Amino acid sequence: MDNQFQAFDSRCKFGGKYFPSPIFTASGCAGSGKELSQFFDLDELGAVVTKSISVKPRSGRATPRMAETPSGMLNSIGLQGPGIDQFLAEDIPWLIANNARVIVSISGETIEEYSSLARKLRGVAGISGIEVNISCPNVENRGMVFACDPVASRSVVESVRRNVGGELPIIVKLSPDVTDIVSIAGEVISAGADGLALINTLLGMAIDIDAMRPKLAGKTGGLSGPAIRPVAVRAIYQVHAAFKNTPILGMGGVTSGRDALELIMAGASAISVGTANFGDPTAVTRIKKELIELLKERKFSSVAAAVGVAHEK
Amino acid sequence: MSSINRHAEQRSAEIISNKKIGAYHHMVFAAGDMAAHCRPGNFVAISVGGTGSSMILRRAFAIYRASDRGQYGGTIELVVAPHGQGSRWLTGLEIHDVVNIVGPLGTSFGIPTEPASALLVGGGYGSAPLFGLAEVLKERGCRVDMVLGASSAGKIYAPLEGKRSVNSLTITTEDGGAGVKGRVTQVIPGLIEKHGSEIIYSCGPMAMLAAIEEISSKEGLLHQCAVEEAMACGIGICMTCVLPVKDSSGVIKMTRSCIDGPVMDGSKVIWDSSRKIPEGTWGFNG
Ligand SMILES: Cc1cc2nc3c(=O)[nH]c(=O)nc-3n(C[C@H](O)[C@H](O)[C@H](O)COP(=O)(O)OP(=O)(O)OC[C@H]3O[C@@H](n4cnc5c(N)ncnc54)[C@H](O)[C@@H]3O)c2cc1C
Ligand SMILES: Cc1cc2nc3c(=O)[nH]c(=O)nc-3n(C[C@H](O)[C@H](O)[C@H](O)COP(=O)(O)O)c2cc1C
Ligand code: FES
Q1: Contacts of B239 in chain A (CB under 8 A)
Q2: Which site among A56, A66, A94, A273 would you substitute to test the B interface, given the most B Cβ atoms closer than 10 Å to its Cβ?
Q3: Which of A216, A218, A292, B108 is spaced 20 to 30 A from A313 at the CA atom?
Q4: Which residue is closest to A25 within chain B, CA to CA?
């Protein structure tokens, strides 16, 4: 018998909820879950984090929506989705029937939209948490992104907390495109966040030098993939240093178990995998296996034991 | 388990052959059981650049032919144009090199239940999936006429063995280096009339597909086209490969060309929609 395997504890915890695996999918990078289920069983995941869902259906941005960049990619999907009602009627029941744990990512353009999304999720059986994507333009404040404004970030989280009640863990996803991510983190934690998701994409642009115009129809796009991993490690390290008791769902360019361990050592309690799924449909199961092997090699008996160890040396 | 890409798998595939033919490379991969599930119109997605490459996204390639038994077991054949970094890396590989491949992916061409007269139109490497289609149509008793067009003769991919399954082959080149000088759309109306074509199958650049749809709708024909949009994942999880398509109730939706395509009903696609969302699209608010 492999006793070491028996003993290893791969759980992680957000709010009052335990998740059996530390590897999640990242919002917007797993379709509806169905598409990936051809390649592995969704219950291998800590949870599926859904694409960010809005109050109403959204067509998303025009194409081209994608440009590959060195060790990364730019995307300007523009939150394409069916809206919360159809999502709750179709996507959620399918995920639950297929044994996936589900964290629903929500996005709004006003505080009221976030409140209304939270109210709709409150009574939904079978979901394990809410990820609040605040990297969206606030139409009530000249389109300034919520996540870049401490006051707006706080208001969103307070309204979600109020409307969702005390049960469901709330994980707030922050943008790295801010001067002081620690102060934003402080605001959303005091407003009631149970955890933080770090990091969303960084705003970037690529230009087609033959057509002499931006490659993306939406001009700018979010940069993701290995190119942003050092930014993720830095953001997670800074926020964990300031708020040791708030669990972090770390993400940004994780492609291997080694990358996942780097983010965990910086302070992440669990990892979301985004862009890596595009290049490798079984990335999440491979990363999970590699991570657990690396942890065992280093004599950790749990994922939790490795969280933030880079702060101790 | 879902019904999307029901037969797709991820596996290593050894290169059996890599031959330069005109502007393209004809490449053969030992792909085991994957080959048995490939249908004309399906594509595969291949990792490029090797381990640790800065190219993080797969490249999609239409399946030229698939055969499930032979000296090397199942094989999949592709026609690859050395274009940018990824395709050049791929065409630069040698026999016995191994690539990581996901497939078969996407929709395939619909085959008429009754024998019909079919016109197959390919632009550039867009001819690749049409030869396998021609074989299937021929087996079903269809008449098969083919038009292949490109800017110059070197960019026409029309292997000898492929020609066997077509009743006629017309070639057009923009520089007049081979066949008729001009574009495929110039010869299509005449061919439809001559052969009594009832259905058009097409694969090639989006502008060509749009022009074919214009002819096809004017003539009242069915038109199945294989589209090519930039794809980040090829398996339906990223939403980058979308184009506006009317659903069964006529509502325009941004539709994934990797899982609801690449083969689509040409009359349902809203053409000329690059860099803008057509008005009236579901969920569009200006
Ligand atoms: C369904 C489908 C079938 C294809 N079949 C073939 C085939 O049979 N033979 C062949 O040679 N090529 C085919 N391609 C194109 C192929 O996938 C690559 O885009 C091409 O080889 C160029 O890649 P590169 O790395 O050399 O070029 P680069 O220009 O360096 O990189 C290409 C990058 O741009 C993206 N991209 C941007 N616009 C497009 C677009 N309009 N179409 C595709 N990708 C785009 C790609 O996803 C990739 O990330 C097909 C593409 C699709 C989507
Ligand atoms: C195509 C694409 C779509 C995304 N959609 C969302 C989204 O809807 N909501 C969200 O919070 N983040 C979204 N993201 C950001 C990812 O969840 C993740 O934070 C980011 O990509 C960094 O991780 P990665 O490098 O592993 O992809 C998206 C990223 C990509 C590449
Ligand atoms: S290429 Fe990712 S959804 Fe189609």
Answers
A1: 28, 31, 51, 60, 65, 77, 80
A2: A66
A3: A292
A4: B237
Bridge partners of B118, per DSSP, are B144, B199
Domain ranges of chain A: 2-60+78-209+223-311
Please tell me if the CB atom of residue B254 comes closer than 6 angstroms to any atom of ligand 3: no
Residue A77 Cβ contacting ligand 2 at under 6 Å: yes
CA distance A71 to B82: 21
Burial zone of A293 (CB within 10 Å; 0-12 exposed, 13-18 middle, 19+ buried): exposed
| ipTM score of complex | 0.94
Say if residues A42 and A277 touch (Cβ distance below 8 Å).
Answer: no
Query: A112: which 2 tokens?
Result: 């009221």
Cα distance between residue B155 and residue B252, in whole Å = 35
Which of B41, B45, B40 is CA-nearest to residue B9? Answer: B45
Per-residue tokens: B104: 């078969």
What distance in Å separates the CA atoms of residue A32 and residue A38, rounded to the nearest whole number? 12
With CB atoms and an 8 Å threshold, state whether B57 touches A280.
no
Contact B54 A64 (CB under 8 A): no
Interface of B with A (CB under 8 A): 1-2, 4-6, 8, 10, 47, 54-58, 100, 102, 229-233, 235-243, 253-254, 259, 273-277, 281-285
The CATH code that applies to domain A2-60+78-209+223-311 is 3.20.20.70
Q: How far apart are CA A178 and CA B232, in angstroms?
A: 27
Q: What is the tens place of the pLDDT at every residue in A4-14?
A: 455 799 999 99
Say how far apart CA B196 and CA B215 lie, in whole Å.
Answer: 14
Q: Is the pLDDT of residue A2 over 60?
A: no
Whether the CB-CB separation of B132 and B208 falls below 8 Å is answered with no
Residue A107 region, left (φ>0) first, then alpha (ψ -120 to 50), else beta?
beta
CA atoms within 13 A on the CB side of A146: 28
Q: According to DSSP H, which parts of B142-272 are helical?
A: 160-163, 184-195, 206-219
Q: Which residues of chain A neighbour B56 with C-beta distances below 8 Å? A: 68, 71-73, 225-226, 255, 275-276, 278-279
pTM over 0.90: yes
Nearest ligand, measured from the Cα of A196? 2
A36 touches chain B (CB under 8 A): yes
Beta-bridged to residue B253, according to DSSP, are B245
Ligand in nearest proximity to the CA of A80: 2
Cα B59 to ligand 1 centroid, rounded to whole Å: 6
Domains for chain B: give ranges and CATH numbers: 9-105 (2.40.30.10), 117-226 (3.40.50.80), 231-286 (no CATH)
Nearest CA residue ID for atom 29, ligand 2: A28
Neighbours of A31 (CB within 10 A): 25
The mean of the pLDDT values for chain A is 94
Number of neighbouring beta carbons within 10 Å of residue A104: 30
What is the band of B2 on the pLDDT scale with cuts at 50, 70, 90? Answer: low
B264 vs B202: CA distance, rounded Å: 10
Cβ(B156)–Cβ(B177) under 8 Å? no
d(CA A65, CA B243) in angstroms, rounded, equals: 11
Q: Which amino acid is at B209?
A: L
